[in-house]
Hints:
This protein is an alpha/beta fold. The protein is about 35% helix and about 20% strand. The strands form 6 sheets. Strands 1, 2, 3, 4, 5, 6, 14, 15, 16, 17, 18 and 19 form a 12-stranded mixed beta sheet that branches. Helix 14 links the parallel strand 18 and strand 19. The protein is globular.
Amino acid sequence: MLSDVEIRRQASPLSIDHIAAKLGIHDDDLLPYGREIAKIHTRALQRPTSKAGQLILVSATTPTPAGEGKTTTTIGLGQAFAKLGESVCLALREPSLGPCLGMKGGATGGGYSQVLPAERINLHFTGDFHAITSANNLIAATIDNHIYQGNVLNIDPRRILWRRVMDMNDRSLRNIVLGLGGKTHGVPREGGFDITAASEVMAMLCLAGDISDLQQRIENTLIAFTYEGNAVYAGELQITGAILSLLAEAIHPNLVQTLEGVPAFIHGGPFANIAHGCNSLIATRMACHHADWAITEAGFGFDLGAEKFFDIKCRIGELNPVAVVLVTTTRALKMHGGQMKGNLGKKDLHALREGLSNLDKHIENVRKFNKQPVVALNLFADEDEAEMALIEARCQELGVPFARSSHFADGGTGAQDLAYQVMQVVEKTQPWQPLYELDMPVAEKIRTISREIYGADDVAFTKQAAADLRQVTKLGYDSLPVCIAKAPGSLSDDPTLIGRPRHFDVTVRGIQINSGAGFLVVLTGDILRMPGLPKHPAAERWRLSPDGTLNGMA
């Protein structure tokens, strides 16, 4: 089979105005960024529509280094719907440049289920990440300048909550000292950087309903405390207009296409292990507004992105997905059964049988939201029939629809059985139900997620976390939903615990108030908001040919 790059180079993508025409988008709402990319003005949501806009969520079992192919499955499923003559549109997250150059590589699908133009999407795309980074760092620069210029707001430099961000993995910037070099260079204090995808500006943009909503979120963002302990909000810096100006284009979702010409909105990119892990609400609504079927995904496993999709995004956006697809692979389940990465291509029914417990737990979790999952087995080229049959038998035992999907090798044709299974589930769909009520105490919200979704016995709060809980209650933010930052490679907060861990406690070491985004970030275990590069980052493989062709990107 050809490589991803070779497949892309053989493609003949349609012009973006043709893709927009498939969705019935008005010419006045099309903002082209070249021949293959456009932004769609948010006013398109105000135009009349006759589309059903049924939303499908794609999630997965716990991620492994073997890869599950959630994005590839989402794209393949969309192409399958199109092959069946259905009106369909995708809604995906934008890749973050840090992971693209680090460990993950590209994030635009694979094989014959990719979105185009992959190189531009994985790199600078339409500049959304740059705009978000600039808006975030304008707030940071203004805070330090305000203190330097006399500190009218009486901000305590020791209690500044706002951090700088950049779209790059750089562990050396996690904790730094600012303002060194003498009086004219600022006031020395401790600070640090997060990655842009983990920033509150990213979350605000992705959860805002429109520009007015975004303005309110920015102004209501908690950024620091005074020496007296009073809260300071971003609106008090008098730069809301400038921040909105930086985000004026970024708020419009980006339209591209798959290899088979299926429209795809790609907009926003919060990580699911340290943020809420879903594409923008505006893009999701745009897909629903312009197609009968809208297919979206939530980052990492169901325990992270999908839980936040339901308890945060669906709450804020009043969404009700009609189906949930749970992606898994024989290799991933064998790894959860104890098999080493280098041996995953070999038949191992024992390891696979042991690893099925991870699939079992995720199926249980989907049902906790009153939804029936469809299990999609993402196929590799060398699959063993006995291994596939074992997974199918487990799904039958649990009463869960199951489909083998060869979308990587066969594009939309290979996912048609999956599409049929999804459409059958939709006929019996019920409204989703939240895992917890918003008036529940914050500690109990965290316990509920930890016990019900992760399978923990209890939650342990450090002294700092306990102090943070008191601060949350004092400021009146205890009715917000919680966004748990947790290791993605395990159901627990310990990344070494594979499969379905039991008899463990989740350790909460801090709680951050994201009042603009509208949720509380709960830091567990050793989770970090700025990743580092691996020993041999993907950047080492990238080459730019004299003709401008990029080689080495996954």
